Amino acid sequence: MSASDSPLALSVEDGVATLRLSRPDAGNAINLEMAEALAETSVEVAALDDIRCVLLTGSGRFFCVGGDIGAFRAAGDAVPQLLEKITASLHDAIAHLARMPKPLVVAVNGAAAGAGLSLAALGDIVISARSASFTMAYTGIGLTPDGGATAILPRLIGLRRTQELAYTNRRLGADEAAVMGLVTEVVDDIELEEKAAAVAQRLRNGPVSAFANIRSLLMSGLPLEEQMDLEGRTICNAAGSPEGREGISAFLDKRRPVFS
Length: 260
Description:
By secondary structure, the protein is an alpha/beta fold. The protein is 51% helix and 16% strand. Strands 1-2-3-5-7-10 form a 6-stranded mixed β-sheet, sandwiched between helices. Strands 4-6-8-9 form a 4-stranded mixed β-sheet. It is globular and about 65 Å long.
């Protein structure tokens, strides 16, 4: 498969890796090839030290419409086996993107449905085009959520709202998604790429080790006392790190810190 035929495009510039879902004619639907590409590329961007921030977006009119329903039908009686392969790779990708030691920015350029909603919700910062929409969609075809939706969404928007979206497949507009806490900010469509790139570059220039520790803390899910113990150990380590020393010195010197 040539780079132009790949279902996922990767570019790296000035410490920011951009992952672009690249099946625009299919709404960036996730087939086995895309799931495998996401899994492989997520490992790569997580491991490379010169990548300090990752930006995820889609090509064309859609962010990601979810699973490739046409491929499901074509699989016939073998669809459970196909979905097992797809979800294994997709979940591996999502786990790496969620736990990598660098921030993830998501630019939602259009409709996000099913697993596309899971990918959209995964970002530390989620910038949505005003025309974007969000729906879980699964029960509309008699399926159940994947992509970490049942773990991520209740933490973002609450159990009750997650139940409503899962059972009714109600479609949210971008502004309602922002009010609900599903996305961070809504911008006009023409401004999306520039805004997302600026956010990614700001994070790229920030204290990435501190960001990594914050990501780990937020993902831990420990009881309060254990969480505070973990926070205590983490902030002590951060204070002694090069980033911590630079940040403290810069504050006292009344200058902008240089973390990169």
